[in-house]
Amino acid sequence: MPVIVITGHGDVPLAVEAMKLGAFDFLEKPFDDEAMVTAVRLALNRSKQAEKASADRADLDKRITSLSSRERDVLNGLIAGHSNKIIAANLSISPRTVEIYRANVMTKMQAESLSELVRMAITAGLAGSD
User: Fold this and answer.
1) 34 and 83 part of one domain
2) If you count DSSP H runs as helices and E runs as strands, how many of each does the chain have, helices first?
3) Is 109 exposed, middle or buried (0-12, 13-18, 19+ CB in 10 A)?
4) E strand or H helix that includes residue 63
5) From which residue to which does any coiled coil extend (predicted)?
6) DSSP class of residue 125?
7) Residues spanned by the domain of 100
8) How far is Cα 58 from Cα 56, in angstroms, rounded to an integer?
9) Which terminus of the chain has fewer Cβ atoms in its 10 Å neighbourhood, N or C?
10) CB of 46 closer than 8 Å to CB of 60
11) What's the structural domain count of the chain?
């Protein structure tokens, strides 16, 4: 829940402290009604965006959790930019098997393209975990 601090005796250190502690806005009395309405509207919009981002991240984490260990290995190879042939050599499996795992990863992650898959991995914090 976003917080808007309203005070009759504000100063810069108090405002800085409030913002460091997570306040969305800091209003000093007297303020006009429009300033309050605008602050509330912006705070609610940011809250909605944060909730959506959190739900999207939870969905992404769920997709990643659905991957098998070998699918995760293939995903890590893809994130690192390796070809199917290199991934196959690194995992001691055939390139055709990598293609199958890669298709499974794309399906489970609901990615339409490799670039979308890499974007998801970056969002999930997987980039660089080769």
Assistant:
1) no
2) 6, 2
3) buried
4) helix 33-65
5) none
6) T
7) 66-123
8) 5
9) N
10) no
11) 2
